[in-house]
Amino acid sequence: ARLDMPVCYSAVARDTVVLAEAHATTHGRDAAEVSAIARRVLEAHGGEPGNARASYGESDLVFHLLEGVDSTYFLCAAGAGDGKRLPFAFLEDARREFVLKHGLEVRSAEYLPPMALDAKFSSLMANKMLDFNSGKAGDALAKVRGELDEVKTVMLENIERVLERGDKIELLVESTARLQSDAAAFRSTTRRVARRMWWNNAKMFFISWCVCVVVLYLIGAQFCGWDLYLCSSKHHGGT
């Protein structure tokens, strides 16, 4: 048997409880049979936590599964020869719509009975299957790729800003280190200059003192002789 459409079945579940499902026209498969296989797939996948994407083959059908948040799973069935790109693009789109429309409802509910959201979400999944199977999938895939490219661009811009900020911080650190080094060199130079000026002042004081002594001696020598004998107290006492 061959499928008329690549994606022939889709469902959303919480843990192993199917909340909504939709069927497209197929040949050789009963809708109840496909639904039963989908539930077995969910039970089998429940033993593989952390496996965000998985595919399970069943004769001419492959069931593709995508994990969501809050223990939700998105499942679709496609032909064995139809690859994985289209089914997973469909699941990504269905998951995005589900989170927007029913994410808060699922998160706030401790328990949801089987088919609790079938009336609200099954028709949306059916329409999406028609869009993907009728050739509009290319537009949807392009939309998904465009959104991924936008996210990638934003991430790259953020990385560039972080790197640029890191460069600026590195330059600031280098400038600070250079200023600290210059300040230390300036303090060292200032101390050397201060010591040199102190010695120069000491030398000038000593030289000035010596000059004063010599001048006073010369003045005294004119009146008292070179040995200052005439001005000594002993000489005056003798006269």
From TrEMBL:
CDD domains reported in the protein's UniProt record: Longin, R-SNARE
Gene3D superfamilies from the UniProt entry: 1.20.5.110, Longin domain
Alphabetical UniProt keywords: Coiled coil, Membrane, Protein transport, Transmembrane, Transmembrane helix, Transport
InterPro entries given in the database record: Longin-like_dom_sf, Longin_dom, Synaptobrevin-like, Synaptobrevin-like_transport, V_SNARE_CC
PROSITE patterns named among the record's database cross-references: LONGIN, V_SNARE
Any one of the GO CC terms: cytoplasm
Keyword Membrane in record: yes
Pfam family, one: Synaptobrevin
Bilayer topology term: Single-pass type IV membrane protein
Residue spans crossing the bilayer: 204-223
GO process terms (BP): protein transport; vesicle-mediated transport
Compartments it resides in: Endomembrane system
Residue ranges constituting the V-SNARE coiled-coil homology domain according to the UniProt record: 140-200
Domain Longin: 11-125
Keyword Coiled coil: yes
SMART domains, per database record: Longin
Family: Belongs to the synaptobrevin family.
Its biological purpose: Involved in the targeting and/or fusion of transport vesicles to their target membrane.
Name of the protein described by the UniProt record: Uncharacterized protein
